[in-house]
Structure formats: structure tokens, C-alpha cells
Design a protein that fits this description.
mainly alpha; DNA polymerase, domain 1; globular; 4 helices
């Protein structure tokens, strides 16, 4: 059975604007986000690591579905 492709905007806290910012730094999928370094993403987007950690956790949960 083929896995449904999950888009970045399905990650809790990630909207269209943030999705564009993530893609600009090379994070193009939920899988990319799940594997990303929290500190690196936070620094590159100038946001709190706590926020990025929530995105990464949400991305990992979406991978499980």
C-alpha cells in the first residue's frame, strides 16, 4: 500500500509562510524536518529551538501514520 505524501503544512505550527521559509533552507518534506537539527533550523530561521523541537516532534508523529 502506498504511503500518503504528507505536506509540511500538516505539521503542527507550520503554515504556508513557514513552509516557504523551511523550503528556502532545504527542508522540503516532513521526512526532512523529522531528521533536521533543531538547533540548526532554529538558528537559520531565527526562531526559538523550543518551537522547532515541537515541529520536529510533530513531523515524527506524522511519519508514524
Amino acid at each position: 500500500m502506498e504511503k500518503k505524501k504528507v505536506v509540511l503544512t500538516e505539521v503542527s505550527g507550520v503554515g504556508e509562510k513557514r513552509e516557504s521559509q523551511l523550503k528556502a533552507i532545504g527542508i522540503n518534506s516532513v521526512d526532512d524536518l523529522a531528521k533536521a537539527s533543531v538547533e540548526d533550523v532554529a538558528k537559520r530561521l531565527k526562531v526559538s529551538p523550543k518551537i522547532v523541537a515541537k515541529w520536529v516532534a510533530s513531523a515524527k508523529q506524522l511519519q508514524q501514520k
